[in-house]
Amino acid sequence: MDVEKIKNKYNKKNAIIVYSGELAIETVLINEKVGKGDYVVIPNNVCYRILNAIIRREAIPIIVRPENELIITDKDIKKILENYNVKCILAVHQFGLKVNINKIRSKCKNNEIIIEDIAQGWDIFSEEKIGDSSDYIVSSFGKGKPLDFGIGGIVLTNNNNIIDNMDYNNIQSRYSEKELIPYIMPYNSSLNLAELMNKADNKKRHNIKLARICYKEIKNKKINFYKVEKVEECYWERIPIWTEDIAIFKQMIAIAEKMGVSYEPYHNKMLEELPLLKNKKYTYINLSTKKRLFMLLKTEELKEKIIIDFIKEINKIK
């Protein structure tokens, strides 16, 4: 299990392989002594397992519906920090869309810990690279992720304390005087990180081709596409298109079903609606004034021709 390549990619001194992305996040929270009563910011559209990690630490999740309903921005964070003494911000490159961590860092005044989650945003290039402004990078190797091994996760950081706080299941750990974090994956695992990274790089090239087609071909003024300055800045694990018109949305769904376009709808229930939170302390902040109806195109399962044909049909919707 050679971690040097991924450490070099993100210019981090330390890499810890654990059993899941959820445990990668919990490892960071434990290492930073995030605990009872501490506020942790989390977008409302991410995997529920992230919420599990926060709840187990008895921290208080601030569940945020971002203004754009997709990813947290510095404007969202500014509003939150005006009202809450936040200890940790979980910045998720959801759907492979770029979160500007540097701008978020610029709004932080009290050494808030920033965890950058790249489970769906494996390789985002811009003037600011992944890890430049965050304290930790975490990712998942779960099924369907860019780095798909079926199990596992990773923590990358320049913080040396995390190395001393892990349980390596050896003599040194047995006689440690401190409580150790037990989630580390054995080094004899068959995980081949270099191979996973190469596959993820190839997938990104495919994803960008599809995103460029959406940029160029979507002409219907009532159907929107998430736009950035450069298509290459995002990984596009999912390509979000949306409308605010329910009749148009139903037609989009019908066309996709008829043509066999691989997509997924947005979650029926966001984090703030989950039974997991029953009798738990949390805060929900809605920063969006709109109700967008999203269709998330699954890039891995789509080819260029079907995207082009699909867009031609949705452009005809009135």
In short:
By secondary structure, the protein is α/β, with parallel strands linked by helices.
Query: At the first level of CATH, what is the class of the largest domain?
Result: Alpha Beta
Rough shape? globular
Global mean pLDDT: 93
Strand-pairing-aware structural class: alpha/beta
Query: How is the CATH topology of the largest domain named?
Result: Aspartate Aminotransferase, domain 2
Could you explain how this protein is built, in words?
The strands form 2 sheets. Strands 1-7-6-5-4-2-3-11 form an 8-stranded mixed β-sheet, sandwiched between helices. A 4-stranded antiparallel β-sheet has the order 8-9-12-10. It has 10 helices and 12 strands. With 318 residues, it is α/β, with parallel strands linked by helices. The model has no long low-confidence stretch (mean pLDDT 93). The longest helix is centred in the middle third of the chain and has 25 residues.
Characteristic terms for this protein:
318 residues; Aspartate Aminotransferase, domain 2; Aspartate Aminotransferase, domain 1; 2 domains; eight-stranded mixed sheet; four-stranded antiparallel sheet
Break the fold down into its secondary structure elements and pairings:
Layout: H1 4-10, E1 14-18, H2 21-31, E2 39-43, H3 48-56, E3 60-65, H4 74-81, E4 86-92, H5 101-107, E5 113-117, E6 136-140, E7 153-157, H6 161-164, H7 171-174, H8 193-217, E8 224-225, E9 238-243, H9 246-259, E10 263-265, E11 283-286, E12 293-298, H10 304-314
Parallel strand pairs: 2-3, 2-4, 3-11, 4-5, 5-6
Antiparallel strand pairs: 1-7, 6-7, 8-9, 9-12, 10-12
Helix pairs in contact: 2-3, 4-5, 8-10, 9-10
